[in-house]
Amino acid sequence: MSLSDRVIQTESNSFGNRIVRGMCTLAVSVAILYFINALILYFYHPNTNEILQQVVAQTIFPATWFRPEPVERLQFLASVVSMPFLVFFLSRFFAQFSWLKALSKKVTVIIAAITLGLFVVYLLLLFKRSLVYLTHKTAIFYFRNTVFGHLNIVLSLVLFCTMGILFLNYARLVDSIARKLVSELSMAVVVLGILVANVMYSILNVGSQRSGILMETNAVFYSVTQVFAGKSLLVNLNAQYGLYAWFLNPVFKIIGLSAVHFSLVMGGLSALSFLFIYLTLRKVFRSPVLAFITFLSVVFWQYWQTRLPLRVTPAFFYQYTPLRLFFPALCMYLFVVYTKSSQSLRPYLLALLALFCAAAVLWNPDSGIVVFGAAFAGLVYFSVVESPSGFKLRKILVVGAAMFGVLLLVVGCFLLSTKLNSGHWPEFAKAFTYQQIFYQSGFFMLPMKAFHFWNLPVLVYIIAAIYLSAPSRLHASGNTSLAMYLVVLGCGLFAYFQGRSWDLTITVVMYPAILLLGFFCDLLSEDFSTDFKGMVSLRSILFLFPFLFLADGACAMMGKIVPVLRYGLANVKNSENNNIYQRNSDFLLKNIRLGDTVLIISRNYESFYYAVGLYYNPVRGAGSTELFFKSDVSRIGEMITTAKYPVVYDRAHEWSNKDSLINLLGQYEETIAENEDHTLLLYRPKKK
């Protein structure tokens, strides 16, 4: 073979050679990360008993509720920190081998086939094993609501492979002939079938809910009621989910505060979160069909997978959607708009992006810090790949100055607002009190198993990091910079699962991995041959692997849109005015004036009763659902013994030491009223 023939063959097989180098990088990276974690496990033996003793001395809960994970935490942090450097250097290392650049097409296909075959074996083993904490099999548990979970695996593969082949062959035809029609239809499904259903599902009817369900809502709602009543966060009120109440307070001052209004705002923010994700996909993906499929898969796995089948009582969990989803989605959309805008608009868009990233840090530090870091990393990457060599450092400095400068400005606004409202400066250390002690003490946390469903999104992040580290990415576009945003976002949000390690939590944090799968599908379908001969190519095989997962989630979501809409409509109609909650609300309004100061002891219903009369809680600290420290309980006791304000006590209140609380109330307070069924008692201080 002549030199010119070898050059032509090498160029025609450049894609296959890059894939082989990427597979080598992936295999060695995973092996080294495993070795690092094994070393930590072997050499690091901290004293967990000491950690337990420290936390038990502070908390009202027993030691059995805590399981410190210092080894696992160090393994996670070491993996996250080392992974990008490891991938970068290995990618460049394998790029130096000339023989990896000149492999024949036949050799690359064989290597890729063997690697993918091993991956299929791994998937089969994973889905046949039992989960650690559940009796279900992995496939049955995670895919119980999908096509894979209902059809024979062979029929499912045939169905989705056919869909993938049709997409690859006719995507251009659809885009050129009926792009507008597909665009309008998909937007209609998104708006009507997804966003509206999400809002209707989120509307809260307190009287029809179980106490256990309301516990989660009460933890989020309580700080909103007290900020509305005049308290200041990080001064006389703390909230484990962040300072979102400070941002939402002007909204409720306009529309009024109630349980329904609160749930409407939460539902609206949730719908907006998914809308920003959809708009991002439409702006990035060439095909509206693939954008629609990816979006449906994201909505299914992030939101509905844990809420199906639909039950009598909606499964509210505002702690993640929207609190930890809204700003990641919004900032992702603004980031894409920035990378695709003209040079004249970018300074304004950068300031706007920096503003929302800074707000995210205060809104919910858990996700906000990750969003800030992801946006900053994405902007730096975009500045590097887009700018000429002489302007790279200058652009990076401008981005850094904008991001951190606006962050200081937002923090300053919160400081000044708090000082004016309370007369005191906020204590920012309180913003991380719960996160620090929960993470260190292992409060209701479980150990991660090495062989588990979480492996899959992590593999996606490593593969995306390999793609971003390839030398060919030096001329990348803004779409590639979005991949950088998603990798950093996904790795940071994964800490939520690593800490809790509940099997349900992995689905709510892996949406960046699903978006990356769609990104790779869009990338692999580019310049694809539309004849059936191309169906057996390496590019098509690699396309089908992520497409199978996306199509499965999209079909599952499409099949549930009508039931979800019906359920949401029924939830809106289910007002149930004549219920216990309504009667208790009437009792409170009859005996306590609007805006009065009163201590309400009613675990899981506390915030809803405070919202009824816009009441002010005289006790400094967290709400009853968030009671964790012994000092929190002692403050309640001190307030009762000082006997300055009335107390409302709910007999159904799940107090850890109920008898002592009743004795304390009987000693310092006297009953002046009670509701019809004698479950809600109103006390006033005894006259001395």
Structure characteristics:
four-stranded mixed beta sheet, mainly alpha, 688 residues, disordered N terminus, 28 helices
How does this model look, in words?
- With 688 residues, the protein is mainly alpha-helical.
- Among the domains are: 1-128, no CATH class; 209-257 and 577-688, no CATH class; 324-443, no CATH class.
- The protein has 28 helices and four strands.
- It has helices at residues 3-12, 14-43, 48-56, 70-95, 98-101, 105-128, 138-142, 147-150, 153-177, 179-202, 211-229, 244-255, 259-284, 288-304, 326-340, 346-363, 365-386, 392-422, 433-441, 455-469, 478-500, 505-509, 511-524, 538-573, 580-591, 606-613, 630-642, 658-668; strands at residues 599-601, 647-650, 669-674, 680-685.
- A four-stranded mixed beta sheet has the order 1-2-4-3.
- Helix 15 packs antiparallel against helix 21 (478-500), helix 16 packs across helix 18 (392-422) and helix 23 (511-524) crosses helix 24 (538-573).
- It is globular and about 95 Å long.
- Residues 1-12 have low confidence and may be disordered.
Helix content: 55-70%
Q: What's the number of extended β-strand segments?
A: 4
Q: Structural class, from secondary structure content?
A: mainly alpha
Largest sheet: 4 strands, mixed
Count of separate DSSP helical elements: 28
The strand order across the widest sheet is 1-2-4-3
The whole-number mean of residue pLDDT values reads 84
**Parts with pLDDT < 50 across at least 5 consecutive residues:** 1-12
Outline: globular
| Distance from first to last alpha carbon | 107 Å
Q: Work out the radius of gyration.
A: 28 Å
- How much of the sequence lies in strands comes to under 5%
